[in-house]
Design goal:
single chain; 258 residues; 9 helices
Length: 258
């Protein structure tokens, strides 16, 4: 039955940036579908842990700052030690820095690129190696990697040069990894959220002029919410999407169609 293909019962997911916002929404969706979750967080994820456990699933909090590559090996090791395996990776952690391109600093550029793109790639590499090891041990059938892209994977934006570069890069490496790893049963896709009501967009929501301009462009006539990410992430994490790879799925209320 098709609904059984969407079940994540017995699966283990790693989700970065799991404490609030879109990350928290996706963690909850995965747990509701049956997965146990290792949540990577800088600040702690007590609220997320409570939500997952209320669904009868397990949640492992892993404190790590993905602004550097140092914690990547430990993230995989701690997940496997706790749950015995990894089946799904959601690369959600990210930051944004705003300034005119003419003034944008090297330090802001490096901070955004290191977290949004460099760590995303190398954590994906580490998890893919775990997928292959599980397959060699006949304990796995590949795996699912889901990156979080952006509307700025398709558009240029303004005053966010490093963010635009990083999210355009996310779309590119998503396709690259999909091409190389499909033969191993590993799918690699991305979700591109539209304008979402999260901490990253508080300044835009508070700016009456920009808020009105943004809403005027969204056919759904509202900002997205973390729960709007649940269906997309569960689909891409499940057997229902076994023949879907290298895709960037927009969850944008129709923004790109306008």
């Amino acid at each position: 039955m098709i609904l059984e293909q969407f079940s994540l019962a017995g699966k283990v997911a790693i989700v970065t940036g799991s404490s609030t916002g879109l990350g928290q929404g996706m963690v909850l969706g995965l747990a509701e579908a049956g997965a146990d979750v290792a949540g990577v967080t800088v600040t702690g994820a007590a609220a997320t842990k409570k939500m997952v456990e209320e669904q009868g699933r397990r949640f492992l909090e892993i404190r790590a700052d993905l602004g550097s590559l140092e914690p990547i090996g430990r993230i995989v090791e701690e997940t496997v030690a706790a749950f015995g395996r990894v089946d799904i990776l959601v690369n959600n952690a990210g930051i944004i820095r705003r300034d005119d391109a003419i003034n944008f600093s090297e330090s802001d550029w490096d901070a955004v690129m290191n977290l949004n793109l460099k760590s995303l790639f190398f954590l994906s590499q580490a998890v893919a190696r775990q997928f292959l090891q599980q397959r060699d041990m006949q304990h796995g059938d590949g795996g699912r990697i889901i990156n979080i892209a952006s509307m700025l994977s398709f558009q240029g934006g303004i005053r966010v040069p490093a963010y635009t570069a990083s999210k355009s890069g996310v779309a590119g490496v998503t396709r690259l990894m999909a091409n190389e790893w499909a033969k191993h049963g590993i799918t690699v896709n991305a979700i591109a959220p539209g304008y979402m009501a999260t901490n990253n967009t508080k300044a835009l929501q508070a700016d009456a002029k920009r808020n009105a301009e943004i809403l005027g462009r969204i056919p759904a006539d509202r900002w997205g919410l973390p729960e709007d990410m649940k269906g997309a992430v569960v689909f891409l994490a499940s057997a229902a999407s076994a023949y879907v790879t290298g895709q960037i799925l927009a969850v944008d209320g129709g923004w790109l169609a306008r």
